[in-house]
Amino acid sequence: MKLKTIIGTAFIVSACTLPASAQVGEQRHNFSVGVNGGINLNSVSFSPRVRQKNLMGINGGVTARYIPEKYFSMICGAQIELNFSQHGWDEFYEDYPALQYTRKMNYAEIPFLAHLAFGKDRGLQFFIHAGPQIGFFLGDSRSISGNWGDYKGFTVEQHDKAVENKFDYGITGGAGVELRTKAGNFLVEGRYYYALSDFYGSTKRDYFSRSAHGVITAKITYLFDLKK
User: Fold this and answer.
1) Residues with Cβ within 8 Å of residue 204, at least 6 apart in sequence
2) Distance between CA 115 and CA 128 in Å, rounded?
3) How many CA atoms lie within 13 A of 33 on its CB side?
4) Nearest C-alpha neighbor of 40 from the set 89, 97, 85
5) What pLDDT digit, counting tens, does each position of 131-169 carry?
6) For the CA atoms of the chain, what is the radius of gyration?
7) Using the 8-state DSSP alphabet, how is residue 8 labeled?
């Protein structure tokens, strides 16, 4: 699955970054900047498994987008963001409601996105985003309740374990709609991030062989054109 995801993303990015001379399209130089904000629904893929429910966090930052060409009916460009994003997990055991553990993890994230859109230059457009994403761990906070020592059979090695790999990377993609007006461009988007890296050590000597983020994001972006 990882290889297919990477190949698919590379194909999309390459389609948007071909030299203009190799494409038969309408040239344009639309550069936009703005801000974005939204919420994350977070979980972590652990192996061995840790039971959990989605943890809500915030996501927001600045966005820059460049659209060099319209290729037939497809608007093709690239977008980059610098975001503050909260990840983590919330452990949940339905039969043991007194046992609770939450870890919130803060990251500075940079997604590099291919931007493919269809629609009118003024009005409503449908768009797709896909590309790689990197992140830098900033810090975390933990909350715990209940006497975990009274119960057996739960994985608890993650509770006191510090983040070992502070560089995060993976693949992100999503879709949404954009309303282009004279007052600026308003985007509503849903996105999913699949981490290829583990934040705990994952060698044969380590307890976890997998500890990677999975994030569903809903966000709103406002962009204004610096150059059309």
Assistant:
1) none
2) 6
3) 4
4) 85
5) 999 999 999 999 999 888 777 778 899 998 999 999 999
6) 20
7) H
